[in-house]
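sorry for the late reply, my laptop died twice this morning and i had to redo everyting from scratch. anyway the thing you sent over, i finally got around to it. pasting the sequence first so we're on the same page, its 349 residues, then the predicted structure underneath. double check i copied it right bc i was rushing
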Amino acid sequence: MNIPFLAASTAGSGILTWFGVWILRNHATQLGLIDIPNERSSHTRPTPRAGGAAFVVSTIAVFLAGAAISHQALALGIQIVLTCAMFIAIVSLADDRWRLPSRVRFAAHLIAACVVVFGAASLVDVEWQDGMVLLLGPLGIPASILWVVGATNIYNFMDGIDGLAGVQAVVTATAAAWIAMVRGDDMVALLLLIVAVSVLGFLAHNWPPAKIFMGDVGSAFLGFTFAGLSLVVGGTSRGTVPFLAWVLLLSPFLFDSSVTLTRRVLRGERWHEAHREHIYQRLVRAGWSHRTVTLVYLAADLFAASVVIAHFAYGIGSPLIAVPVATLPLAAIAGIVRHVEASRPVTAG
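ok and here's the structure:
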């Protein structure tokens, strides 16, 4: 990959995003994009939202321009994922503005997931170790649809405090781009680096204390894009960025949501209703600042990414080792929240 071209493309996406978010911040009131705190909110003052629209536009625009300038043909799978991700972003922006019924959002997620799975790629087999693969057979299609819809919503659920969803995106996209570049998939690497730097431009406004929120338009776009790409470039054992690598890179969010869902089901609660029971929310309720919680998750992200890059880019270790090692910080986070809650009373909410 041409390094000056790569640097110019990624830097341009970050600058465009920064200016786009700045414009949205200054016109949020006129656009009706103000987040008013309620009993489930982790913030206490009205704040502009939907800042993620800026990195959605800059990511798509800069990547397509870069592909055109470099005369690179886009694989059909990438075209489908980006088209569906833009559709998800548009529906989610409407939700940020008018609060669409949940069934409308779910229908949009399901339709987009089906288009990706039937039109681009699905899980056929999952590479495990030394040539061993898990063959999914007829389970591959429903598993793929569930994965895309689930990852999209999980990413949305986890966007609840300043900076959290942004740092997860930057680390995930950068690590996956690194693996793609080492394995020779330059266009996927370019796309992911543009995503990473675009989100960095947004984080300049969203780092605690946030001046603007990502909104569903940003979180749903990121979750869908990562899930869709994981099928296109990792849905088979011949993929350039294996599916297992994506799961481990997203493991802090997947772990938090899985633990939260399990706790709510075991306690007989309505798991599908809005709540404040995620691990990151429990830490905030126990008195931790948004900055501290985000930094804890960032540390987990970076640790998982280093293990994933070492194994999937350079062949160090095996999945039998990489999986438990990469997830060690998650057990630590679970232990932290239990200790914090035990040592300091948690307010009701």
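The mean pLDDT is 91.
thats about all i looked at so far, will dig more tmrw
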